[in-house]
Design brief:
The chain has helices at residues 12-32, 40-47, 50-53, 56-64, 66-72, 82-116, 128-142, 150-169, 176-200, 204-215, 223-242, 244-250, 254-259, 264-286, 292-304, 308-332, 341-359. The longest helix has 35 residues, at 82-116. Helices cover 73% and strands 0% of the residues. The radius of gyration is 22 Å and the shape is globular. It has 366 residues and is mainly alpha-helical.
């Protein structure tokens, strides 16, 4: 029996190579360009700074942070050149954070689309992003002293919103359609409440902080955010790949899944928790970045087909590539002004779906 073929299923290798090339080009541009411009020679010198590499304690202190460095007794044993400090303390963390955010958004979008059997599903549609944004605005308006804990608050808000979606959709069990409808309800209410909270803000700095979080931005990325995102990214990636076969079963529909002995409610909820964890990780370190979790699975699916494991692996490369390219444009297009990367991804996402509508004529036929 011949193996089934899917449109574009012979191109995953080329897609991954293309994604890696885009990541490399964007990363090189990010490292060398900016308000403090460095030549290529200075950039390479900063990456391979002999003074830094010959004193591992200084390098570890930069990566692990001063509190951990003090605990471990890591002293700065060498003076660091300005260009080296900028590259290692500002630009490299931002690049790594963009990679981690792209991985999490790709995983989240793939799982949400799988468990709802809806290729337009994502953190926004299922209320996760609106819940996180509402929690952030509530803290900024009513409890500004909790500002340093915004990452945890964002994660809690996203998880709480999804649990509310699940409760609304529950009727002796859930279904893909009820989850989507409940997500639309929660997202609409959350968006309306966010608008109301914006009207209550009087301090311009608070408004700017709120806009940055609710739009999505990598400005101010540092090693602390990388340390927050990295372990959870590893966890969500391992869990997603380990449960990919259940995601394939869920794509067959509830009736077919139950006939195969799968407890659809437990599997759907478990997969949703992984997706929420991935989305919350992104929101916690970069705010609400739209469209990436929606368009990455679409792009990868054209090369891998619908099978979940190769789809997730493809998202592991394409998600970071899109985030790095978008963040490079956000950071440098209007330099020295830095545009929130969520605006760029929104433009890219809208353009991509317009392209899909033009290519797939059946999507616009009455």
């Amino acid at each position: 029996m011949s193996r089934p073929s899917f449109p574009g299923s012979g191109r995953p290798g080329r897609m991954i190579v293309s994604a890696l090339v885009c990541m490399l080009i964007a990363a090189v541009i990010q490292i060398a360009a900016g308000a403090y411009a460095t030549s290529w020679r200075e950039t390479l010198g900063a990456l391979g700074d002999r003074d830094l590499w010959s004193h591992p304690a200084t390098l570890l202190r930069i990566v692990l942070g001063d509190p951990v460095g003090d605990t471990l007794g890591l002293a700065r044993s060498v003076e660091i050149d300005t260009s080296t400090l900028i590259v290692w303390s500002v630009r490299l963390p931002r690049i790594l954070l963009a990679v981690l955010v792209g991985i999490n958004l790709g995983i989240s979008g793939t799982i949400f689309q799988g468990i709802t059997r809806n290729e337009l599903a994502g953190p926004y549609l299922l209320g996760v992003s609106s819940g996180a944004g509402l929690a952030i605005l509530l803290v900024l308006v009513a409890f500004p002293g909790f500002g340093p804990h915004l990452p945890l608050i964002a994660s809690a808000g996203g998880l709480g919103a999804f649990l509310l979606v699940y409760a609304i959709a529950w009727r002796h069990g859930t279904s893909s359609i009820r989850l989507v409808l409940a997500g639309v309800i929660v997202a609409a209410i959350g968006g309306a409440l966010q608008t109301a909270l914006f009207l209550l803000m009087r301090d311009l700095a608070t408004v700017q902080d709120a806009v940055s979080w609710t739009t999505g931005s990598l400005t101010g990325a540092d090693w602390e955010r990388v340390r927050i995102a990295l372990p959870w990214t590893v966890v969500t990636t391992v869990l997603a790949l380990g449960t990919s076969r259940y995601l394939d079963v869920m794509l067959l529909g509830d009736a077919a899944a139950r006939s195969l002995g799968v407890s659809t409610e437990r599997v759907r909820f478990g997969l949703a928790v992984i997706a929420v964890l991935a989305a919350s990780t992104t929101i916690a370190v970069a705010g609400m970045i739209g469209f990436v979790g929606l368009i990455v699975p679409h792009i990868v699916r054209t090369a891998t087909g619908p099978t979940s494991r190769p789809l997730l692996i493809g998202c592991f490369f394409v998600g970071p590539a899109i985030m790095l390219v978008a963040d490079t444009a956000a950071r440098l297009a209007f330099s020295p002004l830095q545009v929130p990367v969520g605006i760029v991804t929104g433009v890219l996402g809208g353009g991509y779906f317009l392209y899909l509508m033009r290519r797939e004529q059946q999507l616009i036929r009455p």
